[in-house]
Amino acid sequence: MKLPHRARGERFDRAICQALTHNGVSCSIREVRKALREGAIRVNQQRVAAGCRVVGGEEIYLAQFQPRGAAQVKGEADLCPNAPVLADWLDILALGKPAGWACAPLRPDETGTLLGAAVAYDSAVADAGPSLEGGLAHRLDIGTSGVVLFGRNTRAREQLRRWFSEHTISKTYIAVVEIPASPLPAFSDKAIRPGTRRVRVGDGPGALKARSDFELVAQSADAWVVCIRTFYGRRHQVRAHLAELGAAIHGDIQYGGRDGSRLMLHAARIDLPDGRSVEAPIPTSFTAGMDSSCFRRAGLERVRGGDTKPWTP
Q1: Hey, which of 17, 25, 210, 276 would disulfide with 192, CB 3.0 to 4.6 Å?
Q2: Which CATH number, 3.40.225.10, 3.30.2350.10, 1.10.287.3510, 3.40.250.10, labels domain 71-166?
Q3: Nearest to 284 by CA among 147, 151, 98, 101
Q4: SS3 53
Q5: What is the rounded distance in angstroms from the CA atom of residue 313 to the CA atom of residue 303?
Q6: 274 vs 82: CA distance, rounded Å
């Protein structure tokens, strides 16, 4: 690709972005600037600073540049044994996410995410939404395991996202937490204030409405197992609400919990407003030595299985 002479005097990042857009490639100036800095985009086979000025007629080499908007997530069948299918409906695919996996890639070359497994199960998921998201309807933190929903077409994904934004989807979590100094209240409805690394609890600039309902379902000498229900999908909501009450989740050092092998938070169940529901088996790390009846009293039936093995009725 050559830069036109009419771009003379323009910054290289702006001129390249405009030229790519003119050729039907969707990208941002930020992506182009980063690619110039890293050498993924070269000018006359040389690295050039984004702020340098165009003369006109320069040859732009793009072999190592893949803009986010043009990326296509590929199916990764080798991931499927660790991401069991929990629900296989015509419009929605539900997978069990292992702890430690990202839900979707942040970069075009990133692999090993739950979206890669979903696309391996059904290639239509890749085209059900934006690039690098596909039919992904919501997210779980990397350390959290459990149910994640994918739309199998654009309409299904949009419907799921509408339900989430309208707070009509109920989500149930299981967490192993520190024993608080005082009993947990029935709920916390304190607002969540977004932050870069962690969120804050309470009113203030940008505060978002939130509510988490709590139920103690099991206890040991040094920990409680708590069932949490919420209709809100605020980032880190459950983690922040519990930490604010002195019941930080085990493994959640970001919010004051003790260090551990994993974040002991599991998205156990999702109930949709159309009457459908899906559960992810509670990992054995949560249930070892515990009476499963306590989970059934909390409305969770699928407590058998292991960290990756799908539950079979």
Answers
A1: 210
A2: 3.30.2350.10
A3: 98
A4: strand
A5: 11
A6: 28
Amino acid letter, residue 280: A
Chain region(s) in the chain for CATH 3.30.2350.10:
71-166, 168-313
Q: In angstroms, how far is the first alpha carbon of the chain from the final one?
A: 57
| CATH no. of 168-313 | 3.30.2350.10
Give pLDDT tens digits for 238-253: 999 999 999 999 999 9
Q: Using one digit for the tens of pLDDT, what is the confidence trace for 7-66?
A: 888 898 888 888 877 776 777 888 788 888 888 888 888 888 888 898 888 888 877 777
All CATH 3.10.290.10 domain ranges of the chain, comma separated, are 5-69
Q: How many CA atoms lie within 13 A of 74 on its CB side?
A: 7
Least confident of 160-164, 253-257, 308-312: 308-312
Q: How far is CA 196 from CA 138, 175, 190, 235, 255, in A?
A: 19, 23, 19, 11, 14
How far CA 281 is from CA of 31, 86, 96, 289, in Å, comes to 40, 9, 8, 16
- Return the biggest CA–CA distance within the chain: 75
| Fold type of domain 5-69 | 3.10.290
Q: Which of 103, 111, 101 is nearest to 134 (CA)?
A: 103
